[in-house]
Specification:
This protein is an alpha/beta fold. It has one domain: NADP-dependent oxidoreductase domain (TIM Barrel), CATH 3.20.20.100. 38% of the residues lie in helices and 14% in strands. It is built from 11 helices and 10 strands. The strands form 2 sheets. The protein has an 8-stranded parallel barrel, surrounded by 6 helices. The longest helix is centred in the last third of the chain and has 16 residues. The radius of gyration is 19 Å and the shape is globular. It binds NADPH dihydro-nicotinamide-adenine-dinucleotide phosphate (NDP). The site of NADPH dihydro-nicotinamide-adenine-dinucleotide phosphate (NDP) has 30 residues, from β10 and α10. Pfam families: Aldo_ket_red. Belongs to the shaker potassium channel beta subunit family. One of its GO terms (biological process) is methylglyoxal catabolic process.
């Protein structure tokens, strides 16, 4: 099918340079961890991809295990891409990852050369692609020499199966070691993908400065704390929420009284800015100059539209930041 997308989409979105690389990413990127698997509505998944692209999102993030079932998000995305977006392939940055459990036996997860190469080959088949733009090691492997994992990433780039490499969930010490090996091999790392939001701020103390120093981009995952940093849980757990979904990763126990008290106060700060809490949470995340993009998840086109509107008011004052810090430290 030939689709007509908004011709002005690249003027309406804002793109930030990814570290010191030649790549620019949209301030908002879309992740396919939830709502794109076999258990989900395919037509809704398709609408969300089309709407994102129409609004200037050029970056879609996957992993071998996204679903459920594991692999089905890649399969569904591959189908959408092939049937409706193939003419736009060169306008897209598509990432996938390796590291979490995919098959039985000693080679089904982590960071060995054996696992990583087999997993990427499987991902490419599901995605119906010859290469991905970014291939991440999804989590550090305590049992495989870092040299083996990094040499495999380098090898994959040289084979042309990935254009760039990324690391996810590596702390700053692991990152520095990995960067050194990759630089020596001649395949510099493009981007790091850590969890970062108002409730999880570990990267502020050291990772962000390491990434800036080395010229590596950063894309934060779960910038809305899986939906907690929105107005959705203020009056309990609604049926159409990740916390109520049996396939959802957000445990209802995480929505404590103290978290809800903070969410209510943060919601007021957002309202005073004429934004929703979701929008404020994204603006707050992007206040870091080294944050190339925020990687949102979504269950509907409406959520994507709301979240993208955050880029229309990116200014955040020192006073607002102070108020947010005070609320978060209560
Ligand atoms: P978010 O923190 O953005 O949470 C997304 C969820 O929040 C949505 O699915 C929706 O859930 C809810 N939501 C989104 N917008 C709104 C809104 N405007 N109003 C109300 N609720 C809203 O991100 P995710 O946790 O989904 O992570 C994003 C991506 O990051 C993933 O898809 C994946 O690509 C990546 N990721 C990477 C990891 C890694 O280890 N590298 C780990 C986890 C994620 P609901 O169903 O409740 O409506």
């Amino acid at each position: 099918m030939t689709l007509n997308f908004n011709e002005n989409r690249y003027n309406e979105m804002i793109y930030r340079k990814c570290g010191r690389s030649g790549i620019h990413l949209p301030l908002i990127s879309l992740g396919l961890w939830h709502n794109f698997g076999d258990v989900d509505d395919f037509e809704n998944a398709k609408s969300m991809i089309f709407k994102s692209f129409d609004l200037g999102i050029t970056h879609f993030d996957l992993a071998n295990n996204y679903g459920p079932s594991p692999g089905s998000a890649e399969r569904n995305f591959g189908k959408i891409l092939k049937e409706d977006l193939y003419n736009h392939r060169d306008e897209l940055i598509i990432s996938t990852k390796v590291g979490y459990l995919m098959w039985d036996g000693p080679y089904g997860e982590w960071g060995s050369r054996k696992h990583m190469i087999a997993s990427l080959d499987q991902s490419l088949k599901r995605l119906q692609l010859d290469y991905v733009d970014v291939f991440y090691h999804h989590r550090p492997d305590p049992d495989t020499p870092l040299e083996e994992t990094m040499m495999t990433l380098d090898h994959i780039v040289r084979q042309g199966k990935a254009l760039y490499v990324g690391l996810s969930n590596y702390d700053h010490i692991q990152t520095e070691k990995a960067v050194k090996i990759l630089n020596e091999l001649g395949t510099p790392i493009l981007i790091h993908q850590p969890k970062y939001n108002m409730f999880t701020r570990w990267i502020e103390s050291d990772l962000l400065s390491v990434l800036e120093d080395k010229g590596i981009g950063c894309i934060s995952f779960s910038p809305l704390a899986q939906g907690m940093l929105t107005d959705k849980y203020i009056n309990g757990i609604p049926a159409d929420s990740r916390a109520a979904n049996k396939h959802g990763f957000l445990q209802p126990e995480a929505i404590t009284k103290s978290a809800v008290a903070k969410i209510k106060k943060l919601n007021k700060v957002a309202q005073e800015r004429d934004q929703t809490l979701a929008q404020l949470a994204l603006v707050w995340n992007l206040r870091n100059k080294g944050m190339t993009s925020v990687l949102i998840g979504a269950r509907s086109v409406r959520q994507i539209e709301e979240n993208i509107n955050s880029i229309n008011n990116l200014e955040i004052s020192e006073e607002e930041l102070k108020t947010i810090d005070e609320i978060l430290s209560e």
